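Bit of a strange request maybe. I'm writing a small parser for structure token strings and I need a real example to test against, not something I typed by hand. Could someone generate the tokens for this chain?
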Amino acid sequence: MDEELERRKRHYTDPMRGRLPELERCLVRHRALQMILIIYHAEELKRDVIGGVAAQKRWRRALSDDDDPLDSEEEVKGDKKLKRAFDHLVRDGVLLAAERQHMVKLIQRRNSIAHHLDQVTADLSTDRFVRDWVAYLPNRQSHDYEALDQLRAARRLLSERMSAKHYVREMDVRSILFEATERALSADIKSLDRRIRKLIRKRREDVARVNAELSLEGTGLTGVFDPEWPENRYDRGRLTPRGVETCYQLFDIGKSPMAVAHLMGLSLTSARRRRRMWEALGGPEREKRVLADIPKVRIRYRYED
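Reply from user aminoacidic:
Good idea to test on real output. This should exercise your parser:
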């Protein structure tokens, strides 16, 4: 029984035909701004760890005139240098093992964004194929809205712990060079936050209103007269005379263009154009046709390789 209900369940197409509504456009911009700051702070956290450990080792060697045989920063490269720097901080009591693990994951967010930028925004697409693909994509990289705040907190924690352990710090102008840019990006993110909250409230209202319009019970437009009945369209998707009349009858009973687009599988642009044509014919006062009396048209289906 459940399989039968699932088979009969109406699947709506995308009325926007891939064009993002304002809410999704704002979310794309919001994520893009956050990702810029995530990449910056992840790289800076990495520099803070490696640079802080390297400066402290040089200071200790200068005081003791004794080389540290464990790991000189000139002897290791890349990821090994970061791993050994974290090992040093844990041994020195600057970080706990759990804190080290958390910081490593935060730094890896940079690679997730850089290598899988297509995946972190794919869920915002209105295209049905993309949404279905994303739902079943294994190990998909999703956007983490908390990563930016966590990176900032991790850098503050590291700075406080290094100071408490009397670590020597190097002067660095990188943060000064990026300060104005970060302020501007952060202000834009806050502005988008406010806008997105308003759009989400409006989206919920719109969804509830459209859902209330989608029921066709008691309208006579069910069964063989369903708006998605195959005889309402030619093979290329253009409406047949019966499909046009069905569309007009939906407007007769007060359906909005968005509801008509969902019910008939039209784009929102096409539904609005049909509404203007319906209004030009007189709207509710137009001469109505009986769907059963409209002659069937021959629909030639074209199969292309």
